[in-house]
Amino acid sequence: MKTIEETYRERLLMLSKQYGGQTGLSKRIDKSPAQISQWVNGSADSKTGKARSMKSDTAREIEGVLGLPRGWFDQPVKTTDTTPQEGFIQFTLLDVKAAAGNGFDNSDFPESVQLVEVSEKWARNNIGNNLKSISIITASGDSMQPTFNSGDWLFVDQAINFYEEDGVYVFMSSSGLKVKRLQKFVSGELKIISDNQKYKSEVLKDNELNSIKICGKVVATLRVERI
Prior knowledge:
Blueprint: H1 4-18, H2 22-29, H3 33-41, H4 56-66, E1 88-99, E2 112-119, H5 120-126, E3 134-140, E4 153-157, E5 167-173, E6 176-184, E7 190-193, E8 202-204, E9 213-222
Helix pairs in contact: 1-2, 1-3
């Protein structure tokens, strides 16, 4: 049985499609696109670490604004659009590209464009059992080859929005959204590494760390072959 938080997210996705995306919905209900995206994606709260979710009072408020029956948000979605096939699991594919290169000027809270299904066995073997905070973005550029290529899907754990350990992270910088390998030194300096050796690494000093904002950690990739 789905939790009320999962039902709220599915209902918000339905409304986003109906009103032409999260930006269109935000104008109708007088909420920011960033706020709606946090609810839909279950982004981790920076203070508590728990997934953000819409409150019941807010659900009632939106129902009133849009002329929906009271309690509409609380009713589980029964359409097959949001029900995965047996043996599969759904992830949100975000409308954003993370540049393995010079960066993209994307919103910090991108819109969800669709739900995609992957084998649940593959997901648990390659990602683990904590799948609720995972979203998918698309890589762009060649600076992280051979680890992944432009167009590949990156499975990002948005709950890890801080430096945890050496690994590949998605982060915002002054030049846009990037995906790079991060490595921290004992001195506190942070090395930003491109796996493609033709690109130079960058080192941020301890007092420069606030110039980037970590959005999540890449925990798995799925190669997309074009024919």
